[in-house]
Amino acid sequence: MSKASYQAHEDIKPKKPSMEQQIHSYLETKGATTLEMLGFQLGIKAQTASARLSEMHDKGKVTFDPYGAYRLTYDDAERLEVIKQRCAERYGKWSRQGEKNGWIGTSKLKEDINKLRAIGDSGSLFNDYAEGKRDAYNLVLRLIDQQ
């Protein structure tokens, strides 16, 4: 992360909860919408809206509808499924980057992916992640350790 990115993150950090609440309220009231429309309606930059929506997606609070619009998740079951999917996507991305750069070996990568796929219900870990008590990296490590 560059120094400028870090500073931007630090500057916005205190505003994140209220922005997330604004987005949640908007989606709750208006329903599914695109990133561009959300940014326009709330008066925030598309990049900022995208970052907050991505964080909310990581927590399972929002997902995409079949048309590519963001919407709130319907219930806890869907929320947990979104969290699992996002964690698997991130793990895959990190793994591919690690393999490409020689940080991890292919056999270890395949073994870890198979462990993740074998996990059935790890609800408490995913709930901790959704509530901000655990970051995605540590969540993946804990899931692997459970196997």
Ranges where pLDDT stays below 50 over 5 or more residues in a row are none
Oligomer: single chain
Using only C-alpha atoms, the radius of gyration works out to: 17 Å
Q: Helix tally?
A: 8
Work out the strand percent: under 5%
Biggest sheet strand line-up: 1-2
Number of domains: 2
Which structural class best describes the helix and strand composition? mainly alpha
Run of helices and strands: HHHHEEHHHH
Count of distinct strands: 2
Let me know the largest β-sheet.
2 strands, antiparallel
The chain-level mean pLDDT equals 80
Quick description:
By secondary structure, the chain is mainly alpha-helical. It contains eight helices and two strands, in the order ααααββαααα.
Architecture overview:
The chain has 147 residues and is mostly helical. The chain has two domains: 3-72, Winged helix-like DNA-binding domain superfamily/Winged helix DNA-binding domain (Arc Repressor Mutant, subunit A, Orthogonal Bundle), CATH 1.10.10.10; 76-146, no CATH class. It has helices at 3-12, 16-30, 35-42, 46-58, 76-100, 106-118, 123-130, 136-146, and strands at 62-64, 70-72. It has a two-stranded antiparallel ribbon with strand order 1-2. A hairpin with a 5-residue loop joins strand 1 and strand 2 (70-72). Helix 2 (16-30) crosses helix 4, helix 3 packs across helix 4 and helix 5 (76-100) packs antiparallel against helix 6. The chain is globular and about 50 Å long.
